[in-house]
Write a structure and sequence with these properties.
Blueprint: E1 5-7, E2 17-19, H1 22-31, E3 39-43, E4 50-57, E5 62-66, E6 79-85, H2 89-101, E7 106-111, H3 121-142, E8 149-150, E9 154-155, H4 156-160, E10 167-170, E11 187-192, H5 200-208, E12 212-214, H6 226-238
Parallel strand pairs: 1-3, 6-7, 6-11, 7-8, 7-9, 10-11, 10-12
Antiparallel strand pairs: 2-5, 3-4, 4-5
Helix pairs in contact: 2-3
Length: 243
């Protein structure tokens, strides 16, 4: 049976007695209904899991004892930065969740010409916080001990101009496939558009700054499906799913 894993944004030390933050209390006590004496795993993104047990618990406060940390997560053979055109609601959540499960190391949400979501001010701040929560939950579920980085939302043109290792643009019109490429070394970048894909001028600007177009086969994939397929192929070819 898989143990419950909880992320906290605070230092952890073996033998420490600690109070859980409010959001973790709600999840453990009100959702999972854990009781004093129950065990779970806690982590803070430093690469290690820490066993923990509940000492005292009520609806507002949970005191835990932290045990000796496990082995550190091994280094990833391939760092993957995903530039992702913002899509509507659950599609974006799904893409982020599955990208984390498939080992992405960095995600940058992008404003694009065809994107149907434009957020500003407080709405943007709340959405970025929501996406960070999706990312953390995916790490808790999948067993990742280090959190991928979620960058602030940026305009596509700004992002592509900053320079990226092995930059690849998913484009069903492209003549090359991922398996046809030379191994990228230790890092690569994937650019994926929103619903409807990138506009022709956007694709052209990406190609002008050095992106290579690649397709994922004979079918046109939805914006929430394309990252999953691309990351699975990339990891199987050059990453931690190889062999």
């Amino acid at each position: 049976m898989r143990q419950t894993r909880i992320y906290v944004d605070s230092p952890l030390a073996a033998g420490q007695d600690a109070l859980l933050p409010a959001e973790a209390v709600q999840h453990l006590v009100q959702v999972l209904r854990l009781q004093p004496g129950d065990n779970f795993i806690i982590f803070n993104g430093n690469g290690r899991d820490y066993p923990a047990s509940i000492g005292t618990a009520n609806r507002h406060e949970v005191k835990i004892r932290i045990g000796e940390p496990g082995e550190p997560a091994p280094p990833l053979p391939l760092s993957v930065h995903l530039g992702l055109g913002i899509s509507k609601g659950e599609r974006m959540d799904f893409s982020i969740q599955k990208a984390v499960e498939l080992g992405v190391t960095e995600i940058t949400p992008l404003f694009t010409g065809r994107g149907m979501v434009r957020l500003f001010g407080d709405r943007l701040t709340k959405r970025e916080a929501h996406w960070q929560g999706v990312l953390i939950a995916a790490c808790e579920q999948s067993g990742r001990r280090r959190l991928p980085r979620l960058n602030p939302v940026v305009e596509l043109d700004t992002w592509i101009a900053t320079g990226h290792p092995c930059p690849l643009l998913l484009d069903h019109r492209a003549s090359r496939s991922l398996p046809s490429l030379a191994p990228p070394g230790s890092a690569l970048t994937l650019l994926i558009g929103p619903e409807g894909g990138l506009a022709p001028p956007e694709r052209e600007r990406a190609y002008q700054v050095g992106f290579t177009g690649v397709h994922l086969g004979p079918r046109i994939l939805r914006t929430e499906t394309a990252p999953l397929a691309a990351l699975a192929i990339v990891q199987a070819l050059w990453g931690d799913l190889k062999g």
